[in-house]
Amino acid sequence: MGVADKISPNLKFAILGLTIPIFTLYVLVLVGCVSTSPGVPSLYLFLLKVNEITLRVGYFAVCAVDAANTTSIPVSQNGTANATDGTICIPTLGLNSSDLSFQLFGNSDDVVPILTLALTLQRKILVPLVLVASLLMLFGAIFFALVKVTQMKLKNPSAFEGAMKQLNIFKPATLATLWTSVLFAFAAAVASTMGIGALNFIIPVLATNISVDGGKVLQALQYMSFILGALFALGATMMLGDQLEQQQGVLGDEYSQQNEKVLAEQSYEEQMMQQQAQMDGQMDGQMEGQMEGQMEGMEGQEQQYPEGPYGEEGQQYAREMEGQEYAQQPEGQYAEGDEYAQAEYAQQQQQLQQQQQYPQQPYPG
Q1: CA 39 to chain centre
Q2: Where along the chain is composition biased (Low complexity) (predicted)?
Q3: What is the Cα–Cα distance from 67 to 84, expressed in whole angstroms?
């Protein structure tokens, strides 16, 4: 039993449930300062304050507040305004400082330098690494879901081999995307903290009328997303290990049984072929032995009867052998036989009598 087997069902459910707060945190971090909805304007990376004008800068938007004259901030067509405190928020994608100045403050050109500084810090210094982390986390969750769906195919023996090939692709992809997402989330949190710390030191020195402050809420959300993402990646790794053991264990028995069946059939065919080869070898050996015996018998006859098997001595020897065979037969054996057998028997008896009368002439004419 591996470590993954010790995970209780409730813990597995909790690990899967981490995806909800993780993506919620990523969304909050990315939509900071996009609108004036409650709490959204306070989700900013850093704050720039010049005289009575305050800029809250997020990853993809800017919120402006004119505390001295709230009526000077118009309601933009591309942004949302809060009439109570004069706050207006607008996305910065595709806009330059002049466009932002017009959208946020009307025709005022006094705020263009501060807007230029804000866009430079947003786009070149504090790059949105958290966006990469969120996308990788999304892909990791999709791959993890594909692993679960593919695992269901393992119950079908005919689809087992194809499902195993898919799992060998989806599992490494899941682990790679999840842990890479964790690394990017950590890099985003640390980079924003260090970058804002550097701005707090440099900008007041270069411009005494500008103050910088970091967005503590957004930074906290980034660290929370990193921690929860790491926990989910760790839990998913353990759960995937559990699934791999099941594939190679219980579910893999079906595949093993199929292999054993195929091997058994191959072994049976090999045994039949071996038996057939043995029988063929035995038949060949017997035939060769019979042929060799016949050849040796023929050679022996040629040596014993050089004049051939039908010479005078050979014929007499054959008659003697036949006579001995018939002499060993009991009388009357051929009494009920055909005439040819009776005549043959009588002839043999006559020859035996002649041999007894003339012992010195074993071959009478």
Answers
A1: 45
A2: 293-318, 342-365
A3: 11
Please report which residue ranges of 250-309 form alpha helices under DSSP H.
Answer: 252-304
Give the range among 55-69, 164-178, 307-321 with minimum mean pLDDT.
307-321
Q: Which residues pair with 214 in a beta bridge?
A: 46
pLDDT of residue 261: 64
d(CA 263, CA 272): 14
Output the CA angle 74-78-79, nearest 5 degrees: 60
For the entire predicted model, the pTM comes to 0.63
- 37 alpha carbon, distance to own chain's centre: 46
**Secondary structure, 3-state, the chain:** CCHHHHCCHHHHHHHHHCHHHHHHHHHHHHCCCCCCCCCCCCCCCEEEEECCEEEEECCCEEEEEECCCHHHCCCCCCCEEECCCCEEEEECCCCCHHHHHHHHHCCCCCCHHHHHHHHHHHHHHCCCHHHHHHHHHHHHHHHHHHHHHHHHHCCCHHHHHHHHHHHHHHHHHHHHHHHHHHHHHHHHHHHHHHHHHHHHHHHHHHCCCEEEEECHHHHHHHHHHHHHHHHHHHHHHHHHHHHHHHHHCCCHHHHHHHHHHHHHHHHHHHHHHHHHHHHHHHHHHHHHHHHHHHHHHHHHHHHHCCCCCCCHHHHHHHHHHHHHHHHCCCCCCCCCCCHHHHHHHHHHHHHHHHHHHCCCCCCCC
Residue owning tokens 């890479």:
180
Q: Which two tokens stand for residue 150?
A: 């593919």
What are the φ and ψ backbone dihedral angles of 89, each rounded to 5 degrees? -120, 140
Angle, vertex CA 46, rays to CA 40 and CA 52, nearest 5: 90
Residue-wise pLDDT for 1-58, tens only, equals: 445 556 788 888 999 999 999 999 999 999 988 888 888 888 999 999 888 788 999 9
- Listed by start position, the domains of the chain span 3-25+128-194+215-255, 263-304, 312-328+337-355
Q: How far apart are CA 218 and CA 158, in angstroms?
A: 51
Q: What is the pLDDT of residues 104-123, one digit of tens each?
A: 887 667 788 889 989 999 99
Interval 348-360: pLDDT, tens: 777 777 766 665 5
